[in-house]
Every structure is written in C-alpha cells, then in structure tokens.
Design a protein that fits this description.
Blueprint: H1 7-15, H2 21-34, E1 41-44, H3 46-61, E2 73-77, H4 104-111, E3 115-120, H5 154-161, E4 167-172, H6 178-184, E5 187-190, E6 210-215, H7 218-228, E7 257-261, H8 271-286, E8 290-294, H9 302-317, H10 336-347, H11 350-362, H12 369-392, E9 395-399, H13 415-420, H14 426-431, E10 435-443, E11 446-454, H15 459-473
Parallel strand pairs: 2-3, 2-4, 7-8, 7-9
Antiparallel strand pairs: 1-3, 4-6, 5-6, 5-10, 9-11, 10-11
Helix pairs in contact: 2-3, 5-6, 7-15, 8-15, 9-11, 9-12
The structure holds glutamine.
Glutamine binds next to strand 4.
C-alpha cells in the first residue's frame, strides 16, 4: 500500500479538513530526505512549499474551496520553470539560473491547490534515456540500485515510485515519460502534441516536446492531465482540450479494435517482457476486445528520422545559452566572442555538444536536402501510415522498451546503444499521437510496461483503455 491515497481522495480529505496540506508537504519532504540515496531530486523547495501549504490550510479553515488538487504535493522535472526556484535542466550551463516566471502547466496545477515540493533529476536538457547524461548525478532505479530508472524524466519517475509525492511532471520528446515510467513500474502519459502548454518548459525539440504526468495509477495521471491541458495564449501550438473530463474513463473493451503493432513486438523484445505483454493481450481479448496484428511499414526508420529532426531542433533551441542571458558565464573571457565560446564549451556536457554538432550538420547548406528534408518527408510518410492503421483499429499496443531497465554504465559509453533504447517510442512523437506506458507485471523482479497508442486527441479514450488494462492485470 502506498503512503499516498488516490490524488482525488487526498484533495477531498484536505478540503474536508481531515488531512492538512502541511502534513502532506512534510511527508513528501521527509520521504525525499529518507530516500536521498536514490538521487532522484536536484533541489527541494522547502520554504515555498511550506508557505503555500500553510496558506492552503488557512484558506480551508476560512471555508474556501481550494481546488481539485488541494494540498497535493508534486515534483517537477528540473526543466520546468517554477517561479523563484533554480531551474538547471540538469546542465552546468544553467547553474544559478532562477526562474523569473513559471510554466503554464505548473500555474494550472497550483491554481487547483497542488504544491511543488521539489525539482527532479533528468538527463541534461532531457537528452537521454537513463539520467546518466545529467551533468550532476545518475538517479538509481527504485527496484534495483545498480540499474537506471530510464530517462530522461528518470528523477520524476523514481520519485513517484519511491512515494516521494503522489505525482510528478515529465517531458516526452522521444520517450522520456514512457520509458522511465516503464522502468520504474508506474504510469506515464505522453499526451497528444499540443494538449499541454510548453510555455515555461526548457525547449528540446519543439515539434516533438510534450508534457506528461507520471503517477501511480491511471486515474491519478488522468486527473493531472485534466487540470494541465488546454489552449494557452503563451504557446501557439496548443490545441483545445476535450469537452469531457479526461477523468471520464468509461472506454468499453467489448468490440474495441486493438492492433498489436508488429514493429513494437519484434524479436528485439526481451522474452520476460514479452510474456507479461502477451498475458495482458490475452486478458484484453477475453474481455471482448478485437485484437489483430497491424503494421506501420516505415516504423524501422522512425529512430533515424528522430535522430535527425530532434538534434536539428536542439541545435537551434540551445543557441540561446550563450553565457549572457542565463546561468553560467565564463568570467575569464576577454571578448564577447570568447565569452560565447568558452561559456558554451565549459557549460554544455558531451551529449548536448554532440546534438548541436549533428543538428547543425543536418541543417547546413549542402546537407539539408540529404538529411533534414528527407527526414521530414519520412515523417509525413509515418503520419500517413499511422492514419491508415488508425482507420482499421482504435488503438495500437506494443512494448515500451525492448529491454528491462539496464545496468548503470552499460550503455553510457555508446551513444548509439543509448539511442536504441527508444526504438519503440519516437514514432508517437514524430506523429504527435498520444501514448501511455502502463505497468503489466515484473520480469526477474524488474517492472515491465505496456505501451498503448491512440489517434490524435484520443487521450481520454486511451486513458480509459489503460485503466481497463490496469484492472485486468491487477
Ligand atoms: N531518449 C531520447 C533522446 O535522448 C528522448 C528524450 C526525451 O524524450 N526527452 O532524445
């Protein structure tokens, strides 16, 4: 049993005066301190969190309605701007940068009474699949300290699995909510592109980046999405939210058409994970879902396309860190050019530099057509192929990751192996569709996630299906 009840129940208890926001914040901060050895957290926001909790408790005493997340503590990946808090994105170049404003997602959560208690570790700038690319430290997997928690939102996922808070926020550009959720045995949702505002979140690949909740259950993730989603004047790519609440999870299995995505269940999938996934599929079938195999024929190109488009966007987004406006600035530089060069040379880690170089290369004159343009063309092809499959089935499913959580150090020296950890996940980002990772059991005592993918804007129905899976495998 978790030390945290369902999020809706915590909020109801706080609102009813049966639990206090202060008690919840203290519990979260104590758990963070007690489990510091996992290195999930970069910084705690003790003072702010305690002040907000006291305010909320005061308002409740006065009979005010605080909101749907009254007194619920949460943890944000350290690439979210939280007003007045350090925001490093786990990169040395942002050390000392204090957020002058706050991300829309956090504003919306706070407006409903949630309290941000800490900022979680990540691969620097969210580049990675294990948190080993963090410039500060590697987070340990809650189930096996010799293994990675997944990435890039590894600190957020580990924090939820370790019960430091009932939910955490992550970002998913190519895998980063779903992979750590799978590796830490929790739920992680990558919503439809544009459903949650990216305003106030450190940009990675702007056409791919999505913000998503990490939580213990589908209900919890759905509630957080319900609060965060919707159009935002500060992010022109945002879309209208569903009229129905995302917590309305009535998806019926009977007659539901689900495609087993051949490319996400290929021979790369580890045998133990495959067994758990196949058991879940059998249960879905027994419950009345119509299951058949489907294929996205160009899927084998998705990782290559991602690793052209993503670095291209990264190289552009990281150009703003020039040592003048944010965080670290080399004080030995004599000229402005030296200041740019030295600040960037010393401030960026290896992976950020690798992506800047790849991205600049694929966008450079003479190579643009061969790489960037070709990748964009294949991206469109993937969109068409996804649309075709979604004409035949309502949802697709497959593995999240080909392997269980890998050992710390196992892939860290080989970027290509690290990139391959995302083999089954970048497709959803390239196409913009929602996808979710739901725990479906354990293999050799390590958690296994099932990935479900839906049509654009089918987030509510997708969450409903995820909830059915959660019930079936319970
Ligand atoms: N692992 C992928 C990468 O390194 C995706 C990261 C992410 O989704 N932020 O780019």
């Amino acid at each position: 049993m978790s030390q945290w009840p369902a999020i809706a129940d915590i909020a109801a208890a706080v609102q009813a005066g049966k639990m206090s926001a202060t008690e919840n914040v203290e519990k979260a901060l104590k758990t963070i301190a007690d489990k510091a050895e996992y290195k999930a957290i970069i910084v705690t926001l003790d003072e702010n969190a305690r002040r907000r909790a006291a305010e909320i408790d005061e308002r409740i005493k006065k009979g005010e309605n605080v909101g749907r997340l009254a007194g619920v503590p949460f943890i944000a990946k350290d690439n979210f701007l939280v007003f007045g808090a350090d925001t490093t994105a786990a990169s040395n170049i942002l050390k000392g940068f204090v957020a002058p404003y706050q991300s829309t997602a956090i504003n919306k959560l706070e407006a409903e009474g949630a309290i941000c208690v800490a900022k979680a570790n990540l691969d620097a700038f969210a580049h990675g699949s294990s948190t080993e690319n963090s410039d500060f430290f590697t987070t340990l997997n809650p189930y096996d300290k010799t293994r990675v928690p997944g990435g890039s939102s590894g600190g957020s996922a580990a924090a939820v699995a370790l019960e430091m808070a009932p939910f955490a926020l992550g970002t998913d550009t190519g895998s980063s909510v779903r992979l750590p959720a799978a590796f830490c045995g929790i739920v992680g949702l990558k919503p439809t592109y544009g459903l949650v505002s990216r305003s106030g979140v450190v940009a990675m690949g702007s056409s791919l980046d999505v913000i998503g909740p990490l939580a213990a259950t589908v209900d919890d993730a759905a509630l957080v999405l319900d609060v965060m989603s919707g159009k935002d004047a500060l992010d022109g790519t945002t879309i209208d939210r569903d009229e129905s609440a995302y917590t309305d999870l009535g998806t019926e299995l009977k007659g539901l058409k689900i495609g087993i995505l051949k490319e996400y269940m290929d021979e790369n999938v580890d045998a133990g994970a495959r067994k758990n996934i196949e058991d879940a599929i059998a249960k879905l079938k027994a419950a009345g879902a119509e299951i058949k195999e489907v294929s996205v024929p160009s899927m084998h190109l998705s990782l290559a396309v991602y690793y052209i488009l993503c670095p291209a966007e990264v190289s552009s987004n990281l150009s703003r860190y020039d040592g003048q406006r944010y965080g670290y600035s080399d004080t030995n530089a004599k000229t402005l050019d030296d200041s740019y060069n030295q600040s960037r040379s010393n401030g960026f880690g290896k992976e950020a530099k690798r992506r800047i170089m790849i991205g600049t290369y694929v966008l450079s004159s003479g190579y643009y057509d061969a790489y960037y343009k070709k990748a964009q063309t294949v991206r469109t092809k993937l969109i068409n192929e996804f649309n075709k499959v979604f004409g035949e089935v309502d949802f697709m499913l497959g593995a999240v990751s080909p392997t269980p959580p890998f050992k710390i150090g196992e892939k860290a020296g080989d970027p290509l192996q690290m990139y391959l950890a995302d083999l089954f996940m970048t497709g959803a980002n390239l196409v913009g569709v929602p996808a979710i990772s739901v725990p479906v059991g354990f293999s050799d005592d390590l958690p296994v996630g099932l990935q479900l993918l839906g049509r654009q804007r089918s987030d509510r129905q997708l969450l409903g299906l995820a909830k059915r899976v959660e019930e079936l495998v319970a």
